[in-house]
Design goal:
single chain
Protein backbone atom coordinates (compact mmCIF):
# COMPACT_ATOMS: atom_id res chain seq x y z
CA UNK A 1 0.00 0.00 0.00
CA UNK A 2 1.13 3.55 -0.77
CA UNK A 3 2.87 5.28 2.12
CA UNK A 4 2.95 8.95 3.07
CA UNK A 5 6.69 9.01 2.34
CA UNK A 6 6.20 7.63 -1.17
CA UNK A 7 3.42 10.10 -1.90
CA UNK A 8 5.34 13.07 -0.49
CA UNK A 9 8.60 12.29 -2.31
CA UNK A 10 7.20 11.33 -5.73
CA UNK A 11 4.99 14.42 -5.87
CA UNK A 12 7.56 16.70 -4.15
CA UNK A 13 4.80 17.77 -1.79
CA UNK A 14 4.67 19.11 1.75
CA UNK A 15 3.73 16.46 4.32
CA UNK A 16 0.55 18.32 5.27
CA UNK A 17 -0.71 18.36 1.65
CA UNK A 18 0.23 14.71 1.09
CA UNK A 19 -1.51 13.71 4.34
CA UNK A 20 -4.78 15.27 3.20
CA UNK A 21 -4.69 13.43 -0.12
CA UNK A 22 -3.21 10.10 1.05
CA UNK A 23 -6.44 8.16 1.78
CA UNK A 24 -8.05 9.38 -1.44
CA UNK A 25 -5.04 8.56 -3.61
CA UNK A 26 -4.72 5.10 -2.00
CA UNK A 27 -8.41 4.46 -2.73
CA UNK A 28 -7.99 5.50 -6.36
CA UNK A 29 -4.79 3.57 -6.89
CA UNK A 30 -6.66 0.47 -5.72
CA UNK A 31 -9.80 1.24 -7.75
CA UNK A 32 -7.96 1.98 -11.00
CA UNK A 33 -5.28 -0.76 -10.62
CA UNK A 34 -2.45 1.75 -10.24
CA UNK A 35 -0.80 -0.97 -8.22
CA UNK A 36 2.79 -1.64 -9.31
CA UNK A 37 5.85 0.44 -8.42
CA UNK A 38 6.13 1.77 -11.99
CA UNK A 39 2.44 2.60 -12.30
CA UNK A 40 2.32 4.38 -8.93
CA UNK A 41 5.60 6.28 -9.41
CA UNK A 42 4.66 7.50 -12.88
CA UNK A 43 1.15 8.47 -11.74
CA UNK A 44 2.48 10.42 -8.75
CA UNK A 45 5.25 12.20 -10.68
CA UNK A 46 2.66 13.45 -13.18
CA UNK A 47 0.21 14.44 -10.42
CA UNK A 48 2.99 16.26 -8.62
CA UNK A 49 3.73 18.37 -11.66
CA UNK A 50 0.11 19.01 -12.63
CA UNK A 51 -0.85 20.12 -9.09
CA UNK A 52 2.37 21.90 -8.09
CA UNK A 53 3.18 19.31 -5.42
CA UNK A 54 -0.43 18.44 -4.49
CA UNK A 55 -1.16 22.12 -3.85
CA UNK A 56 -3.32 23.36 -6.73
CA UNK A 57 -6.65 21.69 -7.46
CA UNK A 58 -7.68 24.37 -9.94
CA UNK A 59 -5.61 26.00 -12.65
CA UNK A 60 -4.46 29.54 -11.97
CA UNK A 61 -5.54 30.95 -15.35
CA UNK A 62 -9.14 32.16 -15.71
CA UNK A 63 -10.00 29.55 -18.35
CA UNK A 64 -10.98 32.22 -20.89
CA UNK A 65 -8.42 30.75 -23.29
CA UNK A 66 -10.69 27.67 -23.56
CA UNK A 67 -13.71 29.74 -24.62
CA UNK A 68 -15.28 28.32 -27.79
CA UNK A 69 -12.93 25.32 -27.89
CA UNK A 70 -15.19 22.76 -29.56
CA UNK A 71 -12.46 20.09 -29.16
CA UNK A 72 -13.09 20.42 -25.39
CA UNK A 73 -16.87 20.47 -25.84
CA UNK A 74 -17.03 24.16 -24.88
CA UNK A 75 -20.07 25.10 -26.96
CA UNK A 76 -21.88 27.53 -24.64
CA UNK A 77 -20.81 31.05 -23.75
CA UNK A 78 -18.82 30.98 -20.51
CA UNK A 79 -17.80 27.29 -20.78
CA UNK A 80 -14.08 28.15 -20.90
CA UNK A 81 -14.09 29.76 -17.47
CA UNK A 82 -16.69 27.41 -15.98
CA UNK A 83 -14.87 24.25 -17.08
CA UNK A 84 -11.24 25.29 -16.66
CA UNK A 85 -8.73 22.75 -15.38
CA UNK A 86 -9.58 21.20 -12.02
CA UNK A 87 -8.50 18.14 -10.06
CA UNK A 88 -5.00 16.75 -9.56
CA UNK A 89 -4.73 16.11 -13.29
CA UNK A 90 -6.36 19.23 -14.66
CA UNK A 91 -9.69 18.01 -16.12
CA UNK A 92 -10.62 20.66 -18.69
CA UNK A 93 -13.66 21.39 -20.86
CA UNK A 94 -17.38 20.64 -20.83
CA UNK A 95 -16.93 17.29 -22.62
CA UNK A 96 -14.50 15.98 -19.98
CA UNK A 97 -16.65 17.33 -17.13
CA UNK A 98 -19.67 15.55 -18.65
CA UNK A 99 -17.75 12.27 -19.06
CA UNK A 100 -16.41 12.36 -15.51
CA UNK A 101 -19.87 13.27 -14.15
CA UNK A 102 -21.25 10.11 -15.75
CA UNK A 103 -18.33 7.96 -14.59
CA UNK A 104 -18.19 9.17 -10.98
CA UNK A 105 -21.90 9.82 -10.40
CA UNK A 106 -21.49 13.47 -9.40
CA UNK A 107 -22.85 16.34 -11.50
CA UNK A 108 -19.73 18.39 -12.22
CA UNK A 109 -21.57 20.27 -15.01
CA UNK A 110 -23.83 21.91 -12.42
CA UNK A 111 -21.12 22.00 -9.71
CA UNK A 112 -17.72 22.25 -11.47
CA UNK A 113 -15.92 23.42 -8.31
CA UNK A 114 -16.62 20.05 -6.68
CA UNK A 115 -13.58 18.86 -8.69
CA UNK A 116 -11.34 21.20 -6.72
CA UNK A 117 -11.35 24.64 -5.15
CA UNK A 118 -8.29 26.79 -5.81
CA UNK A 119 -5.80 24.85 -3.68
CA UNK A 120 -5.47 22.16 -1.02
CA UNK A 121 -5.79 24.66 1.84
CA UNK A 122 -9.19 25.85 0.56
CA UNK A 123 -10.69 22.44 -0.38
CA UNK A 124 -13.32 20.52 1.51
CA UNK A 125 -12.70 16.80 2.04
CA UNK A 126 -15.20 16.13 -0.78
CA UNK A 127 -13.19 18.34 -3.14
CA UNK A 128 -9.95 16.56 -2.15
CA UNK A 129 -11.59 13.20 -2.81
CA UNK A 130 -12.97 14.32 -6.19
CA UNK A 131 -9.66 15.93 -7.20
CA UNK A 132 -7.88 12.62 -6.55
CA UNK A 133 -10.63 10.50 -8.09
CA UNK A 134 -10.66 12.60 -11.25
CA UNK A 135 -6.94 11.98 -11.67
CA UNK A 136 -7.40 8.22 -11.31
CA UNK A 137 -10.31 8.34 -13.77
CA UNK A 138 -8.28 10.30 -16.32
CA UNK A 139 -5.26 7.98 -15.95
CA UNK A 140 -7.50 4.93 -16.40
CA UNK A 141 -9.52 6.20 -19.37
CA UNK A 142 -6.31 7.11 -21.22
CA UNK A 143 -4.85 3.61 -20.55
CA UNK A 144 -1.76 5.03 -18.87
CA UNK A 145 -1.16 1.92 -16.75
CA UNK A 146 -0.28 0.12 -19.98
CA UNK A 147 2.31 2.78 -20.80
CA UNK A 148 3.70 2.83 -17.24
CA UNK A 149 4.14 -0.96 -17.50
CA UNK A 150 6.67 -0.35 -20.29
CA UNK A 151 8.95 1.69 -18.00
CA UNK A 152 11.70 -0.27 -16.24
CA UNK A 153 12.28 1.57 -12.95
CA UNK A 154 15.65 -0.18 -12.59
CA UNK A 155 16.97 1.74 -15.63
CA UNK A 156 17.52 5.46 -16.20
CA UNK A 157 14.38 7.44 -17.00
CA UNK A 158 16.47 9.92 -19.03
CA UNK A 159 17.26 7.71 -22.01
CA UNK A 160 16.04 4.99 -24.35
CA UNK A 161 12.61 3.42 -24.17
CA UNK A 162 11.99 4.71 -20.63
CA UNK A 163 12.21 8.33 -21.82
CA UNK A 164 10.15 7.61 -24.96
CA UNK A 165 7.34 6.10 -22.88
CA UNK A 166 7.52 8.78 -20.16
CA UNK A 167 7.13 11.40 -22.89
CA UNK A 168 4.08 9.53 -24.25
CA UNK A 169 2.49 9.62 -20.79
CA UNK A 170 3.28 13.34 -20.50
CA UNK A 171 1.83 14.11 -23.93
CA UNK A 172 -1.35 12.18 -23.13
CA UNK A 173 -1.85 14.24 -19.97
CA UNK A 174 -0.61 17.61 -21.18
CA UNK A 175 -1.17 17.57 -24.94
CA UNK A 176 2.53 18.36 -25.29
CA UNK A 177 5.70 18.20 -23.22
CA UNK A 178 5.18 21.21 -20.94
CA UNK A 179 7.12 20.77 -17.72
CA UNK A 180 8.88 17.61 -18.89
CA UNK A 181 12.09 18.29 -16.86
CA UNK A 182 10.01 18.91 -13.72
CA UNK A 183 7.98 15.73 -14.26
CA UNK A 184 11.21 13.76 -14.69
CA UNK A 185 12.68 15.35 -11.54
CA UNK A 186 9.65 14.33 -9.49
CA UNK A 187 9.94 10.76 -10.83
CA UNK A 188 13.62 10.70 -9.81
CA UNK A 189 12.86 12.22 -6.39
CA UNK A 190 10.47 9.39 -5.65
CA UNK A 191 12.36 6.55 -7.35
CA UNK A 192 14.27 5.21 -4.32
CA UNK A 193 10.96 4.83 -2.45
CA UNK A 194 9.69 2.38 -5.07
CA UNK A 195 12.77 0.23 -5.71
Amino acid sequence: MLTLGQLKEATCSKSSYASGFLPHIIENCEHFSINTPSRILNFLAQLGHESGGLFYTEELASGSAYEGRKDLGNIQKGDGVKFKGRGLIQITGRANYKAISTALGTDFIVNPTLLGGKNVTKCSNVQLKNAAQSAGWFWNTRHLNELADQIDIHKSIDTGNNLVVFKKITKTINGGYNGLPDRLNRYKAGLSYFL
